Amino acid sequence: MSQHTFEEAKQVKPQELKVIETDPQIAGVRFSPCGRYLVAGSFDSRVRRWAANDEEYKELPSMSGHGGWVEAVAQRADGSTVFSADSWGKLQAWTHDVAGEPEKKWEVADAHDGWVRGVDISPDSEQIATCGMDKTIALWSAKDGSLIRRTSSDVDLFCIRFHPQGEELVSGDQLGRLRRWSRTELKMIGEIDASGLYLYHRLQEVGGVRAIAFSADGSVVAAGGTRPKNGANVQGVPTALLFDYQSGEQQHEITFGATTHCYVHDLALHPAGFLMVVTSGTPGSGQLIFQAPGEEEPFFTHTKIANCHSLTLHPDGKRFAVAGTNKGSNGNGRRLNKDGEYQGNKTPIHVFDFGWPT
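Now predict its structure.
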């Protein structure tokens, strides 16, 4: 990744390079660590991919075989393998390249009992970590999909990440906790209190840690979610909490917008020293924000993308992509169009150039 200072970052003026239209919705949009692919899970049980080294982002043959929605994807550092998991509990691995058709490497039909919320690959590309609504965390062999070990939590789990140094994992859960797990034994070795992202209201547990990001050296961990105001039709201020990883001490709390903006759905700690977040709220509001810890105001805000839910940095440091559900999206009860058909939602992917000063 190219090296830039925070002073240079404050001068950036990101420009939109491309909008990739997708139908139906997708989730978990990620550039591959090698930079050649843009990959996402799809709500029609596929994994979709695009050539990121093509200015037109040509779509490549997709990966099939899932039973439900695919929201969690991870990729080997060399870009050769994609790991994906769905809402039915299936975990799959595919090998692929730009020129050929993808080939299924292995699958585990019942990796979890129900929705798999998070998938991550270890820095050495040897193991896959997953977590799900069945309140378990599992480690798998990236080579053949064999189960290495599994452990249980006491609440719903939203996300799982390997620490950059590779010896620990961190989970984010419904109660607003960042739990540290040893990779060798998968035993809990510490807990970081992010309970400011949780509320119990009207017999409803609201919030939780929805996204995790590390600094490049692993010394700082960020938890994204909302500081909830109420249950039912949830409202809350999108919030990111930054902690010293070893001590667990909270260093910063950064809020983004009003209570109607609700959740930080994805975030990244940029090597130049600032936080990138995307938020989604009601009705359909979306924000892309760059802000440095300790600064009172963001230095870049973009509000033209509705319902933002995915954020991914290209490894060249020059590009990033944001995905959100189309404007005017709706669920049950949406009116039929003039042809008497129900129009489903879509997910435009917006690819940006950072606009680093020359």
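The two ends are 16 Å apart (CA to CA).
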